[in-house]
């Protein structure tokens, strides 16, 4: 199943902090969502909204900002970003729950999540994430065994 990283579609390749042309980015996101199966990951609420009608299951990983910041600090700078850009990223993550009227905020993500009519999960801890992944893997193996080798539809937790 293809995995689409929204960061890869939002930013210019090899140009840290430089956004792609919005029309091109939006077209690429919509094209990716027209595949039969896919997983999209990223914090871009506006881009999720573009493909909202094609989503069959929604998983919101909603970890505390302190945990996200610790992860970013541990991985360090990426893609040639400067220390100033790195600090801007940390500040941006720190403001996630207080940012208002912004597609990439807790407020907007909450609204998208609440409006989603299909199967959805909000995972707010590493333990919840691990349990979710474990269930999906176990159910996928069981479905593959039962079908004689083809996993078929993704067996999301109920």
Automatic annotation (TrEMBL):
InterPro entries: Cytidylate_Kinase-2, P-loop_NTPase. It comes from the Bacteria. This is AAA family ATPase. It comes from Chelativorans salis.
């Amino acid at each position: 199943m293809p995995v689409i990283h929204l960061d890869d579609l939002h930013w210019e390749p090899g140009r840290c902090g430089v956004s792609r042309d919005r029309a091109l980015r939006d077209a690429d996101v919509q094209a990716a969502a027209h595949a039969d199966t896919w997983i999209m990951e990223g914090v871009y609420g506006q881009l999720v909204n573009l493909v909202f009608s094609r989503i069959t299951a929604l998983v919101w990983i909603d970890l505390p900002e302190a945990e996200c910041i610790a992860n970013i600090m541990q991985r360090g700078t990426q893609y040639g970003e400067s220390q100033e850009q790195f600090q801007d990223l940390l500040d941006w993550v720190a403001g996630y729950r207080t940012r208002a009227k912004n597609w990439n905020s807790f407020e907007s993500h909450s609204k998208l999540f609440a409006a989603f009519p299909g199967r959805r999960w909000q995972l707010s801890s590493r333990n919840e994430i691990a349990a979710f992944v474990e269930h999906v893997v176990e159910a996928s193996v069981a479905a593959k065994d039962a079908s004689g080798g083809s996993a078929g539809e993704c067996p999301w937790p109920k």
